[in-house]
Amino acid sequence: MEPDADLGTLGFSSIQGMRLIQALETSFGLKLYASELAGRRSLAALVDYLAGQAPEASPVWPPSSMTATSAEAASPTRGERLVFILSAPRSGSTLLRVMLAGHPGLFCPPELHLAGFATLAERAAELDGGRAFLGEGLTRAVMELQGVDAEQASASLTAWTAEGRTVPETYARLLDLAGGRLCVDKSPSYGTDGAVLARLARWFPEARFIFLTRHPGAVMASLVDNRFDRMLGLAAADPWAAAEQTWQTINHNLLAFSATVAPERWRRVAYEDLVRAPEPAMRGLCEFLGLDFDPAMLTPYAGTRMTDGLHAESLGIGDPNFLHHQAIDPALAERWRAQTGRRIEFSPNTAALAASLGYRLAETLPLSPAQQRFFTHHGDAPEWSIVQRVAVETAEPLEPARFAASWRAVLSRHPQLSIRFERAADGWAALAAEPGEFAVEDIDAAHLAPEAWAPMAEETLAAYHRALSVGRWPLLRVGLARRGEGRYEVLWAVHHAIADGATTQLILRDVLAHYHGGTTAIGQAGEFAAYCGTLAERFDAAEQARQKAFWHGHISGRSLILPTDFPENPGASQYAAEREWAVDVYLDREPGGAVTLYEACALALYEALAKWTGAEAVPLAQRYHGRDLGEWGSFPGAVGNLACDYPLVLRTAAARPWAERAQDLRAALATLPRRGTGYEWLAEAGRVPPVESIAPVRLNFQTGFSWRGAGHRATVLSTRTRQPDDWQRPYALDCIARWEGRSGRLLIRYAENLHTPDTIREFAGRWRAGLLACLREGG
Ligand code: A3P
Fold it and tell me: What's the CA-to-centroid distance between 92 and ligand 1, angstroms?
C-alpha cells in the first residue's frame, strides 16, 4: 500500500477507524479521537500527525453555532419531565448518567448535544466530519426508544430534520417516546456558553438541573492525560492551561446560571461524594427528582445502559475510559494527585471559584498525632515556638550568605519545613507552602559585652517569635550574630507545630554539617511521612484496645496529689505564673556504670516525690521524643513535631539498692506498648485520663547540647518555649535534666501560685542528692 494512497478510496471504513483507535490506545497508550482521524486521508498524513501531535487549527468543540445565539424556537413542552446534567467534561458525568440509567423511571441516553442549536438541520450541518461523534448520542437514544438499529435511527433523524423539526420539538418527541419516564440529557457542551444555558431555561421553565462538580485538579489531570486538547481541537500551547480554562469557564457559567434557577429545580452533586458514598448521593437525587430510590442505581455496570456505541465495534459515547472500570471506584477521587507527576498550579481565579464550590486546592499533608494534639489544645491561639541561643565556634569565619544557603538546603530537604497550616471547617490542616526567599539575619554583636548582648539577644528572639504565624511560611526565623574572632551565636525561633526538641537538634546539626561538609547527613528526608504513614496504618482499633487495657492496668487508682504551699489560694487548681529554679551538677567521673544518667535522674526524682507526697507507687510523666515505635520501626531522623508524654508508675522502696531499682525501672519501661507513644493519642480520644491528671510532675531528660563537627563546635546556651500569655501550664512541675558530658543542670519550672521558692529549692536539693547517690552507688 502506498503511503500517500487515499484511505477512503481504499475502503477504509469508520469501523476500521475505531479499531485503529483501539489498537493505538492498547499498544501506545495514546488516545486518538475520531475527529483526529477524519482529516487524515492517507497513511503518510496520519503518521505525520501522530509523530508531531500538532494541535488542531480550529476548535471542534464546542461547535461554533453552539456558542453563538441561534434563532429562538418556541417550545411545545415546559420541560417538567426534562433533567439536564451540567458539568465540565471529565467530572464523572458518564458515570452519573449510567447510575441514573439504572432507575426504571428515567431515560438516560448518552450525550445528546441538542440544546446548542435551534433546529435539527442546524445541528446536522454543524456536527459532521470531525464532529460527527458528537451527534451519535441522539442516534443512540432513538435506537433505544424505537428499538431499531443505527441505520434505521439515522433514517428517522434524517426524516425529522427534513421536516424542519426544532430542538424543543425534538425533546418533546423524545419525551413522548420515553413514555412516562423523565428524560435526562447529560451534555458537557452546554456549560461552555451562558447563552445556551439561558435559552434552556427559557425553553423549559420547569426543567430540573443537576450540577455535577469535581476538583479542578482531577478534571485538569484527566483532560491532559486523555489529550482532550487534541479532541477538542484547542490550539493551546500548554494543555494544562487549556484544561484549567475549560474547568473554569464551565463552572463559572454554571454557578452564574444557578443564581437564575429556582432552588427546587437545582441540585448540586460533588463527584467525590458520588463515588465515596453513592447511596446517599443517589437517594438525594431521587428525592430531588420525586422518585423512589432504586438500588440498581448503585450498580452502573449491571445490565445494558447504552454504554455501547452505535455499532458492535464502535467506541462508547462519552467517557472513553468508563468501560475500563468494573464498578464505582472511590479511589478515582484522589488518584490524580499521585499520578500527575507534577504539582498542578492553579490561578487565583480557579482557587476562588473552587473555594466557592467547596474545594480546597492546596495539597494537605498528614498531621502527626503530636500535631493533632497541638491544634486540639492550642488551635485558638496556636502561636507557640521554641527559641534557642546556640554558641558556635569555627576555625574559619562563617560567611553569612553561605550560612543562609545551608539553611535553605536543609529547609528544602525536610517537607515539614516547607509547610504552613490552615484552619477549615473540619479543623487544622498542613499544606505544602510555596516557599519564598529564606533569609538569615546578619547581626554584628562582636563588640558587645555579655551583659549588653544578653538582653539584645532575648529581644531578637522575642521578635522572631512574634514574626511566626502558623498560617504563613516560613515557620522559623534565624539570625547569625558575630561575637568575636571565630565566635558566633545562632539565634532562632521555630514554630512548635513543626518542631519538637529533637527536631531543633536535627536541624541545627544538619545546617552546620552542610555548611562545613557540603552535605546534609543527619535527618532523613522521608522519615516524618513514613512515621505518620506507619501510625495511620498500625494504630488501628485493635491496637488501641490493647493499649487502653494495658494503661488502665498500669495506672489504675494511682494519681499523685502534690501538696501545695497555698491551699487557701482559689487559683491553686491552675498552674499559672511560671518560675524557674536551677541547680548545677558536676560529676567527678564520666557517667556510664551499671546505672545510666537517665535512670539516675528518673530514680532520684521518683524518690524525691515519694518522700514529699508519702506515695508508695509514684506516677511520673515522662517526656519522650516519640521516634521509636518498637517493632513498628524507628524514625530517629524524623524532622517535625512527634514528641509525647506518658505516665510511668514505679514503686519506690528507699531501702533497696539503686542498681536493683534501676532494674525495676528498665523492666517497667520494657512493658510499655510502643514505648509509651500511644498514651496521649488515647487520652485525646477520651479513652485514658490526660497524663497530667495522674502525674502532675514531668521528667524531661535531655542530652546532646554540645557537639563538634567538621570545622565547628556548637553549644546550646538556652532553649525555651514561648507561648501566649494566657497559657495554662499542664504540669505542676516540669523537671528538666540537661546533660553535657559530666556537666548537668536540673531545672524546675513551677507555678508560683502553688509553691514557694523554698519548697522548690528543697525539692531540687533532694533530687540532686539522690542523683549523686545513685550514680555513686550504681556506677
Ligand atoms: P479518568 O478516566 O481520566 O479518570 P466524564 O464522564 O464527565 O467525562 O468523566 C470521566 C471521569 O469519570 C473519568 O476520568 C473517571 O475519573 C470518572 N469515572 C469513570 N468511570 C468511573 C468509575 N467506574 N468509578 C469512578 N469514577 C469513574
Answer: 5
Q: Which pLDDT score, from 0 to 100, does residue 170 have?
A: 96
Spell out which residues line ligand 1, taking CB within 6 angstroms: 89-95, 222, 225-226, 275, 318-319, 321-322, 325, 328-329, 332
Atom of ligand 1 nearest to the CA of 222: 3
d(CA 357, CA 268): 9
Q: How many CB atoms lie within 10 A of CB 202?
A: 11
User: For ligand 1, atom 19, which residue shows the shortest CA distance?
Assistant: 322
H or E stretch covering 443: strand 441-444
* CA angle, residues 304, 308, 312, in degrees to nearest 5: 115
Question: What three-state secondary structure class fits 645?
Answer: strand
pLDDT value for 573 = 59
Report whether pLDDT(752) > 60.
yes
Q: What is the pTM of this model?
A: 0.58
pLDDT at 321: 81
Q: What per-residue confidence (pLDDT) applies to 69?
A: 46
Half-sphere exposure of 297 (CA within 13 A, CB side): 26
Task: Give CA–CA dist 503/64, Å, rounded.
Answer: 60
Tell me which residue has its CA closest to atom 8 in ligand 1: 90
Give the other-Cβ count within 10 Å of 473's Cβ. 18
Burial track 635-659 (b if 16+ CB lie within 10 A, e otherwise): bebbbbbbbbbbbbbbebeeeeebe
Residue 68's pLDDT band, with cuts at 50, 70 and 90, is very low
The helices-and-strands tally (H runs, E runs) of the chain is: 28, 20
Judge contact between 730 and 721, C-beta under 8 A.
no
Query: How far is ligand 1, taken at its centre, from the CA of residue 694, in Å?
Result: 53
Q: How far is the CA of 265 from the centre of ligand 1 (A)?
A: 26
pLDDT digits (tens, 9 = 90+) for 172-226: 999 999 999 999 999 989 999 999 999 999 999 999 999 999 999 999 999 988 8
Mean pLDDT value across the chain: 88
Q: Could you tell me which residues are beta bridge partners of residue 210? A: 85, 267
Number of Cβ within a 10 Å radius of residue 671: 10
Q: What is the mean pLDDT of residues 335-354?
A: 74
Residue 224 CA to ligand 1 centre (angstroms): 14
